[in-house]
Predict the 3D structure of the following.
Amino acid sequence: MSAQTNRLPNEQEFQRGLRSRQARGTLWSRLFFAANFFGLFMLIILVLHILNQSFGLVIIRNNVEPATLSETPLEDLNREQLARILVSNLGNASRAILRDSLSIVPVEQFTTVPLDEALGDAVLPPGARSQTIGQVDNEILISILAANFSQDDLYAFVVDRIVQPRVERSWRLLDSIFSRSEIEAVAATEEFANDRLEFRAWLNLDFITSSASSSATTTGLRTALLGSFWIIGITILVAFPLGVAAAIYLEEYATDNWVNRLIEINLRNLAAVPSIIYGMLGLAVFVRILVYLTSGRFTGLNDTNGRTVLSAAFTLALLILPVIIVNAREAIRAVPPSIREASFGLGATRWQTVSRQVLPAAVPGILTGVILAMSRAVGETAPLIVVGASTFLGTDPNGPFSKFTVVPIQIFQWTSEAQPEFKLAAAAAIIVLLVLMLTLNATAIIIRNRFSRRLF
Amino acid sequence: MATATKTDYAIEAKSISVYYGSYRAVKDVTLNVPRNKITALIGPSGCGKTTVLKAFNRMNDFVGARVEGEILYRGQNVYGSSVDPVEVRRRIGMVFQKPNPFPKSIYDNVAYGPRLLGVKNKSMLDDIVERSLKGSALWDEVRNDLKKSGLALSGGQQQRLCIARTIAVEPDIILMDEPCSALDPISTQRIEELMRELENSYTIIIVTHNMQQASRASDYTAFFNIRKNETEVGKENRWGELVEYGDTQEMFNSPKSQETADYISGRFG
């Protein structure tokens, strides 16, 4: 525009000014688009990077070649043949399979009590019932193994404990595609003469369904996944009703006095407290003070401590409670006052108005808050480390009083392992975590949309 | 008016003042509302007519209003300590300025009030819904769409749905707070006709900005005006007062006060 004047622009000045005004608008809109593009670009890089690590070529070396164990391929053998291979190759170590997978007594008692006590309701030949594990001969051991495990289990034992495939070298997906010939040249060298080069998807069904192990090739995410499910389930069960109840009280019933103002100020601040502080709180209160409750001792369990699924879930529930309350309050406040007035005007009590009008209209908004809170809880790591997530857990959590680990902690541990292949397993676990979060969110959004359709 | 006996009044307001906090919005209003008649409250914006209306069924409670004086309904002060406001609102229903159907079906809108009172019987609810919708002259338009959302109706239909919803609990008195201000002239006319029909069974008190509406559709009119304390400036020094109250035709033909004459002839407000 022209220099400062005290009149409106003439036609020519207006046209010139208009162009520059529009040009400035265009520039800003491009900047706004660039901001979005930057976010999208980073997301794509992240996904590509993870995918790049989760698939790729590997050189695998077997400790014992399967061909030396049996002339037919291992997966075609029946249970008795597999059990025989286990016993003849592992010797006494094959008894450890029973100890690890079937025993119901503590490890130190396993060798001293008779088998029908040590193995509980396992199928046992009559003669072996009163013998200890050390007294049974190999033939009986084979029959016990063959009778109590499926073909798949026995095959997995043979691979894990005898064949012991190990990843000697690994490459990422992009290298595997674009530098295939160099990789093949490496695989053909003397060093890897007896080994095979194969394409490996680190993210596969076995990875999701196996428990953690000390080898990157056979390790899996099952224990951590189950831990995440248990903890999220209990967290939502605790935090959802508590949070919504608190929001209803604050929005509909609380009068403006200093107690309620204090609660409000605290709530706002709680939402901003670093999560590790909640971990400290959980450790002090749930793990230590409430140990009788959280360890499950009141139900008769006695070999547990307070570092359980329940303590973790309570801690996360506290962590997401402010998020749920703040969002539920927003949702309740967004219900048009005219609906409340109409209800009161017809002679409804406050509770009738809240339960029949306000809450149904607020459900979509409340659920949005729960979705946000749930996503946060799924990815939370720091407070759970403080509360006492197990660093290595071989047994699945089977209830609120189990020891636990969760997916993000498992990822964290794998990334800090010395063996580079664990980092590839971690990348695969990240994909599982992302898919898990997306699934949880999608489910919640579907529920939310169903509610809003029913109402309007 | 002068000949009416005490039992003919649906509501007797005895020198009521309404306060919001320390601010007195309405001062010293005395008003006897006759039974089975339409009484209009008119006056310029800010004169407190809606405040008085909402005091009658205690809808002011939610915004923290305090009422001094007595509002007698069936000989009992509605602000008495033993009176439950829920009962007051069930007997003195209200239709609001903007149509505000619930985000539910037409049927559920009308059945809401009876259900609040514990009516569960399906055929009884069906009867009430049909009777109320007929009572609000909406039945013929919606009889085949009772499952449709109340929000899908036109503005005028929505307001008649709100009237149906109000009469479904059979109140004694219906308060209407500018019920036609958001409606087109044809819908307005239908509501006015409807008010004439409802007059036989209900006492109606209506707040309106529209002088023609008051003169057409009401039997009695109360004119409120703003008083100012001229020595000071600001909202705190303004309040509403009842200027004149009487038969509608009389007031519009020969107003007693000059203020009323100025207002109804359109000289201010």
In short: The beta strands of chain A are 55-62, 165-170, 196-201. Chain A is about 65% helix and 5% strand. Chain A touches chain B at residues 336, 338-349, 352, 356-357, 361, 455-456 (CB under 8 Å). The CA atoms of residues 84 and 403 of chain A lie 35 Å apart.
